[in-house]
Amino acid sequence: MSAVASDGAVLRGENLSKSFGAVTALKDVSFRLEPGEVLALLGDNGAGKSTLMKILTGFHKPSSGELFMDSQPVSFQSVRHARQCGIEVVYQDLAVVSTLSVYRNMFLRREITRGGFLRVLHDKEMRRIAEDQLKRIGVNVPSVDVDISKLSGGQRQAVAVARAVYSDARVLLLDEPTAAMGVRESAQILDLIRRLKEEGGVSVIIVAHNYAQVFDVCDRVNLLQNGRIAFDCRTKDTSIRELTDLVVNEYREAQQQVRAS
Amino acid sequence: MTVGNEDSPAASVRPVSSPAYRYVNALRKVLHWRETGILLAVLALFVYFRFSSPYFLTQDNLGVIGQYVAAAAIIAAGEVMVLICGELDLSVGQVYALAPFIMYFAQHAGIGLLPAVVLGLVAAALVGLINGVITVGLGIPSFVTTLGMLFFLNGFNLTISGGYPVQPQGSGMLAMVFGAQGGAIEILWAIGIAVAFQFLLMKTRWGLHTVATGGNPVGAAEVGIQTGLIKIGNFMLCSTLGGLAGVLDAFRIGSIDPLAGGTQIMFMAIASAVIGGTLLTGGSGTVIGALLGAVALGVLKDGFTILGVNAYTFDMILGVAIVVTMFMNVRLNRIREKGGKS
Known about the structure:
The structure holds 2 protein chains of 2 kinds. Chain A is of the alpha/beta class. Chain A has a domain at about 10-95 and about 170-260: Rossmann fold. Chain A contains 9 helices and 12 strands. In chain A, strands 6-9-10-3-11-12 form a 6-stranded mixed β-sheet, with helices on both faces. A 4-stranded antiparallel β-sheet of chain A has the order 2-1-4-5, with helices on one face. By secondary structure, chain B is an all-alpha fold. Chain B has one domain (about 50-335): ABC transporter involved in vitamin B12 uptake, BtuC. In chain B, helix 5 (about 90-110) packs antiparallel against helix 6 (about 115-135) and helix 5 packs across helix 12. Chain B is globular. The termini of chain B are close together. The interface of A and B includes residues 79 and 98 of A.
C-alpha cells in the first residue's frame, strides 16, 4: 500500500462506493488529482458526478472505499472539516449574497474584525485585500463596493472563485462553472481557470456536463457513466470527438435497452 | 467619464469640477441611501401638516408624536433584524405586555427596580429563544410559531394578571431613566436603539451574517454561517426590544395593562419596518428607515387627529397612506438601482 500511497497526488480516491438504500449511486470509483492539475469530471445527469462531489466536500460519507490527501488517509466528518483540510467548493448557486457588496461577499464567514466581542467589520482592510486579490487573478469588477446583484453572471462566478482561492484552498471544486452562462462569460471563467493553472499552487476539479467547453483548460478528463469512471485520459491524448463517440455510444445502448423492454 | 451618461445630461457638458456636477453627484449619493424614500415622505408629511395646522409644530404636539412613535420604533428595530434574516415575529406585541408584568411581580417579590427590569427583559428574551428554537429546530414557519406564541402569551398575560392592570412602582433617578417623567426620554431611547442597531446591522459580523442568512439561506449555510443560530439570536433581540418597549411605556403611562400593545403595536412595528425600506422577503433592510417609518405613521396619526378627522375616516386614510408611502419607496428604490448600474 505504501508504494502506491507515496505517489504525490494531492487527492486520491480508491474504490469509492456510495449507495442510498437500494440505489447505488457510485460503484468502485478510483481517481487521482495531481498537484496543480485541472481535472474534468464529466458525465450525464445521474452518472454520479454530484454524489462523488458531495463525498469530496464532506457532505456524504462513502459507503466503502478510501480518500487520501497527500497520501494520508482522510475521512471528512463534515463540510467544515473538508474545508479545513483545504478543499473549497464553488457551488453552482455560487453561495453569494446578492444584497451584499463584492468585498463583503469575498470575506463572508472569514471577515476581518476588530473591537472584541462586537466583531466590528474592518471594511477598509477587507476592501483593500479584495481589490488586490481580484486584480491578482485578473478579475474585472467596476468596484468592490457594488452589490453582487449588479454584476454579470461571469463576474459573480469570478468573485466566488476568487473567494475560494483566497481561502488558501489546495483543491478547488468547481460545480458546473459555466452552466447558465453565455459564451463570452464562459470564456472569462475558463480564462480565469487557465490563469490559476499558470500560477500553480491549487489543483482544480471541474464538474461539468458540457465537456466541449471545458476541454481546453483541462489536463485530464474523467468520464463517469452509471456510477463508474468509464474513461480516464489526458486531454492531449484524446479529443472532443472521442469523448462524443463515447457518450453517443452510451446513448445508443440506452436507446436499445428502452426499445428491447 | 461623464460623457454619454444619460442620467445627468447637465453633468456631461460641464467640466468635472463645476459646482453643478458636484450637486448632481451629491444628489445621486443621497438617492443611493435606502432611507431616502421614507425621509422624503416624512418631510412631505411635516410640511403638509405644518401648513394645515398652526398647532402641528408646537413643542407639546411634538411630544405627543414622540409618544406615538417611540415604542413602535423600538420594536421595529428588532423586527427589522428578524425580517432581514427571512423570518417574522408576530408575538412581539404580547411580549410588550408580558415584560412589565414580570418586572412588577419581581418587584413585589422584593427585589430592586433594576434587577426587576432585567428579569422582565430576560423573560422577553426567553420568549424569543422559544420562538427561534421552534422555528429553526422543528422547521415550522415563523409565521405559525409566533402566531401560536401570540395567542399563548395573550392568555398567559391575562392569567398572571387576573385581567386587571397594575401600577409600576419605582421612583427616583432610575425610574426617570425608564421614562417615568414623560415621553421625551422614550424617544431618546428609540433613537439610541435605532442608531445602535443600525451599527449592529451594517458594521458588525452579526449584522452581515443576518443579511446573508436572509439574502441567500442556502449559500450562507454553504459558506459555513450557522444560519439557525443567527435566526434564534435575532428572535431573541426582537423579543427583548419588545419587552423593553413595554417597560418604557409602562413607566410613561403609569399603568401595566395585560391587553396593552398586542397586535396593534406589532403591526405598527412591522409597517414601520416595511415602509422604511426593509424587505418582507429578507436579505435587506435598515433600522434607521424603520425609525423614520414609525415617525411617518406617528405624524399621520397625530396630524389627522389635529385636523379633526373622524376616527373612522382616519383608519381608512392611514391604510391608504401606508400603501402610498410604500409605493413611493418602491419607485425610489428602482431609481436608486438604475443609478447604481453605471
